[in-house]
Specification:
about 20% strand, Aminoglycoside 3'-phosphotransferase, Chain: A, domain 2, alpha+beta, 2 domains, 5-stranded antiparallel β-sheet, about 45% helix, 3-stranded antiparallel β-sheet, Phosphorylase Kinase, domain 1, about 325 residues
């Protein structure tokens, strides 16, 4: 089924859905994000407070049955705050790829606070490193997509191998050199050597500052657990230091941002030697896979050839390091 593209009709339809599902009237609705995964709306209701509604753009983006329910149960058990899910519809006649309604967390995003100089980049990542270590204490049986508390694959190697194969299939008609595909597969094979150093845990999957809310009490709450899954904890660190948490709008350079993130994790993610050669190699290999994935994201989801070419250059840089 094709990617859901924006039209003004979505704005009106999302209001009707919220009113129907929550049995309330909507007083205002604003589209706050048109991302690669979903169209996101902040909706004020008359008697249910403020909620977030998402219309997903592809079937693969909506959380599978039982996933968010299990994650929210685990977060609550480990005393980690989160936005509660009110409704998930995976078989909507209105939105072909499904929709979701969740609690709205009052506060400001880490992105907005950093950009307005209300919070330093380092202060935010000190909080994030502390919170992610708590998240990574939640064990999962198996790796990959989570369904009813279990990962789809027995090993991290299997999960990444199948992930890369699916990406390669999507890129079969693109002008991508064979060596690029071979490099990604080689990275997966190399990662297999280090799998014994890790165990499967819950990973958020997309923790840059745009997905973190700082409440009025200064507490950091991660939102958007749609991409969460089971993996090795260092995946989050590797992703954040891939491009300085993707905060290119920030006045800090990518190199400066990466150095701050590394320092925050060294100081606040306790009990880990981030200078360990094995750990550094795992990070490099994971970033190869991130760059490979970026080719698909930029070409098919963003439809941005410029970003696609930048991702190709980034992959070449990592491979030569």
């Amino acid at each position: 089924m094709s990617l859901l593209k924006y039209s003004p009709k979505i704005d009106k339809t999302i209001i009707k859905i919220v009113e129907k599902d929550l049995k309330t009237k909507v007083s205002s609705a604003n589209r706050i994000q048109a991302g690669e995964v979903s169209f996101v709306y902040k909706i004020q209701t008359e008697n249910k407070g403020t909620v977030i509604a998402k219309a997903f753009r592809l079937d693969e983006f909506i959380p599978p049955e039982g996933k968010l329910e299990w994650i929210e149960e685990q977060l609550e058990k480990h005393h980690i705050p989160f936005a509660k899910t009110y409704k998930i519809d995976r078989s909507s006649d209105i939105f072909p790829h499904g929709y979701m309604i969740q609690e709205f967390i009052e506060g400001k995003s880490g992105f907005d606070l950093i950009m307005s100089d209300e919070m330093s980049f380092e202060e935010y990542f000190n909080k994030l490193a502390t919170l992610l270590q708590k998240v990574h204490q939640i064990p999962v049986d198996g790796y990959g997509a989570i369904k009813n508390g279990k990962g789809e694959y027995k090993t991290f190697y299997e999960s990444k191998l199948n992930f890369i194969k699916s990406l390669r299939e999507r890129m079969k008609d693109l002008d991508v050199d064979k060596s690029v595909h071979e490099a990604a597969l080689k990275a997966v094979e190399e990662l297999k050597k280090y799998e014994h150093l890790f165990s499967p845990v819950l990973v958020h999957g997309d923790p840059p500052p745009g997905n973190g809310i700082i409440t009025k009490d200064g507490e950091l709450i991660l939102i958007d657990w749609d991409n969460a899954g089971s993996g090795i904890w260092i995946t989050e660190y590797a992703g954040l230091t891939y491009k300085g948490a993707y905060m290119w709008q920030c006045k800090l350079s990518e190199e400066e941002r990466n150095e701050i993130i590394k320092r925050s994790f060294k100081n606040y993610y306790k009990g880990v030697n981030f200078d360990d050669p094995d750990l550094l190699e795992v990070v490099r290999l994971l970033q190869i896979l991130t760059a490979y994935h970026s080719l698909v994201v930029h070409y098919f989801q963003h439809e941005d050839i410029k970003l696609y070419e930048i991702a190709k250059k980034r992959l070449d840089t990592i491979l030569s390091s």
